[in-house]
Amino acid sequence: MHRRRLVFIVGAVVAAAGASMLVPAAVAMAVGESGDALALIVSGAISMASGLLAWKVLGRPGDLSSREGFAAVGLAWFAVTAFGSLPYILSGAVDGFTNAFFETTSGFTTTGATVLTDPAALGRGMLLWRAQTQWMGGMGIIVLGVAILPLLGVGGVQLFLAESPGPTADRFTPRFRETAKRLWVLYLAFTAVEAVLLAFGDMSIFEAVAHSLTTMATGGFSTHAGSLGAFSAYSQWVVVVFMALAGTSFALHFRGLRDPRHYARHGEFRIYLLVLGVASAIAIAGTWGGPVARAIREAVFSVVSLATSTGYTVTDWVQWSAGMHVLVALLMFVGGMVGSTAGGIKSFRLGVLASSTRNDLRRVVHPHGVFITRLGKDPVPDRVVQGVQAFLALYLLLFAVGTLVMAFIAYHAGDAYDLTTVASSVASALGNIGPALGDVGPVANFAGIPTAGKWLLSFLMIVGRLEIFPVVLLLTRELWRK
To answer: Residues 432, 134: contact at Cβ < 8 Å?
Structure first.
């Protein structure tokens, strides 16, 4: 383990994040928010100076091993979150370092949980920074680094493998740097198209840009306390479409936009659409009442928002029936496709788990039979099946332990949170959802969570965003051995 290479990468990422703060600083200055502009400029300067020191002075370039790639990703996310908290602290937009770190973690991990009662009270510069953290975290700051770090003398393959959500990194060009560039171009193009479409509705240009940034990141930060419920049916349907697109593999988009037949042939995509369709039908039936168009829109919007881990809301699902709460809870675990910006377990893993479980049952009847795990028509290698099973075991273990620890924290803090609130807040953080159930539902926020609970949820957000392994490996002795 060459620690100076890790310092080099973490420094480069922190410096890049600091430079990005100048964009919302310019917006704040343009609209006369001098206090916020100064806070963003100072934060950017501190971040760039610290990053450049680590990058140019303390770090050392060189090719990364797989261990170093995982370590770099985990460390970079914690470091960039800490420095990303500075604008909130220096501007006074968020009270205290814990709340600022929680809000920033929620941003970069695209979770969407917030400690703010009314985001509209923030200035435009801070609102843009808030949305920008989600957009950068959506496709992954480290993936962007794959396109840049080779120019600095650092190989990006290991970073891409560690950062890319899912069991495999889908590569469609000979060079990983070209793959990362094309994914980012596609990501930017979808964001721009959504912004234009939203601007044709009842959103201002600023609102359209802010919501397009957080939609494509499946982040869910809105400029209003009422989230998308503050806007028209047109805006809500546009967002539904782009949430579904953001929850789809961007590698599949790249191929599918050239030849739409790739969508129809993709096994995971069919599972993804099946989950959205069945869950939407159940939600419509379970919440039926009032104007038909509104009932359908609210049910479909909520399902797509939950299943893609976006977390936008147009209705308070806490008020739904107990049976529908079960649907909400299940959707909080699902997630989108591998290679998308969504969190959660992912459709790929659910499909592999279903196929391997079916084979296990068939072996009971035919003990000498040979059965191949498939996703659609494609066989899945045994090592991938084992990786999926290990991931699911760790995911459920983290959820159970996290729920137990959160309940312990709430009890000793004197907060009367019920099991629904405790468990759903942990599931929300681990799946990068945002609003949950109970006292942290769509019309509430996470401000009342005890300090220790916010740190626990912040940790789980990063664990969930990086798909567990890079963060868990940071805690093992084997990773740091020379």
So the answer is: no
What is the per-residue DSSP string for 27-75? HHHHTT-HHHHHHHHHHHHHHHHHHHIIIIII----PPPHHHHHHHHHH
Return the closest-CA partner of residue 170 out of 245, 261, 275, 266. 266
pLDDT per residue as tens digits for the range 346-388:
998 899 899 999 998 998 888 888 888 888 888 888 888 888 8
Mean pLDDT of the chain: 88
Helices marked H in 53-140 — which ranges?
A: 66-84, 86-91, 96-108, 124-139
For residue 379, list its beta bridge partners: 374
Helix (H/G/I), strand (E/B), else coil: 23: helix
Q: List b or e across 103-112, with b for residues whose CB sees 16 or more CB atoms inside 10 angstroms.
A: bbbbbbbbbb
Residues ≥6 apart with Cβ < 8 Å to 369? 362, 363
Residue in the block written with tokens 């290991």: 158
Q: Residue 177 — very low, low, confident or very high, per pLDDT cuts 50/70/90?
A: low
C-beta contacts of 277-286 below 8 A and 24+ residues apart? 279/303, 279/307, 279/327, 279/331, 280/304, 282/327, 283/324, 283/327, 286/320, 286/321, 286/323, 286/324, 286/327
DSSP type of residue 458: H
pLDDT digits (tens, 9 = 90+) for 239-274: 999 999 999 988 889 889 889 998 998 888 999 999
Name the pTM for this structure. 0.91
Phi, psi of 468 (to 5 degrees): 75, -55
